[in-house]
Amino acid sequence: MTTFDIHAHCIPPRLIDLLREEGSRLGIELANDGRGEHAVIGGRVNLGPFRPILSDLEARLEAMDDAGVDVQLISSWIDLTAYALDGTAGAEYSRLFNEILVDEAAKHPDRFMPMGTVPLQDPVAAAGELEFAVRHLGMAGAQIATTVDGTDLDAAGLDPFWEAAEALRCPIVIHPCDPLPGVDLSRNFLDNMVGRPAESSIAVAHLLFGGTLERFPELVICVVHGGGFIPYQLGRLQRGFDAVPQLAAQNITRPPGELARLLYYDTVLHDPAPIAFLVDLVGPDHVVLGTDYPFPMGDSRPVETVNSIPGLSDEERNLILGGNVARMLEAVKR
Question: What's phi and psi for 87, nearest 5 deg?
Answer without folding.
Answer: -60, -40
